[in-house]
Structures are given as C-alpha cells and as structure tokens.
Amino acid sequence: DAASGAIIVNLEVGEDLRQISIKNTSLTGSNLVTVTPNGSDTVDGLTTFPLTPLESIRISYDADDAAWWIL
Questions:
Q1: Which of 37, 49, 54, 68 is deepest in the core (most CB within 10 A)?
Q2: pLDDT digits over 1-26, tens only?
Q3: Please, are residues 42 and 55 in contact by the beta-carbon 8 Å criterion?
Q4: % helix, strand, coil for the chain, step of 5
Q5: Distance between CA atoms of 29 and 64, rounded to whole angstroms?
Q6: What are the helix and strand counts (H, E) for the chain?
Q7: Residue 46, Cα to own-chain centre: how many angstroms?
Q8: Rounded alpha-carbon distances, angstroms, from residue 50 to 17, 46, 47, 63, 64
Q9: Residue 52 has what pLDDT?
C-alpha cells in the first residue's frame, strides 16, 4: 500500500513464461508503485513502469526478448 509513500517493486531475474500480478492498493494520494525490472530487462519496452492508485498489471516474462510484457 503506497498510501504513506512511494514503493519500488524490484523484479528478480525473469524465468520464461513466468507471470506476476502487481497492484497499487492505495485508495487515495498520488504515491506510485514503480515496477523495476532486473538489469537490462524491460516492462513493455520501459525501464520502469509506474502504477497509480488502484492501477494494476499482470505481466509475463519472455526469455527470448529479455522482457516482461503486459498481458
């Protein structure tokens, strides 16, 4: 819950086809939950992916691309 401050979620080294769901459960405020991939990996081409209050993503890792993709 990012209600009291911003949160950074550091993803570990990806395993092919692994899926993860992440949600910013804050009901109010403007604090972000920032998803940060490991090393040179990306999330949908971005080096970090911010989630605003009540926003969520489900991502899957593709080892061939070395990237997390939003499902």
A1: 68
A2: 787 889 999 999 999 999 999 999 99
A3: no
A4: 5, 40, 55
A5: 38
A6: 0, 7
A7: 10
A8: 22, 10, 10, 22, 24
A9: 93
pLDDT tens profile 27-53: 877 899 999 999 999 999 999 999 999
Q: Pairing between strand 33-36 and 56-62?
A: unpaired
21, amino acid identity: S
pTM: predicted TM-score of the whole model, two decimal places: 0.89
Contacting residues for 9 by C-beta, under 8 A, at least 6 apart: 22, 33, 34, 35, 36
Q: Give the tokens for residue 53.
A: 């209050």
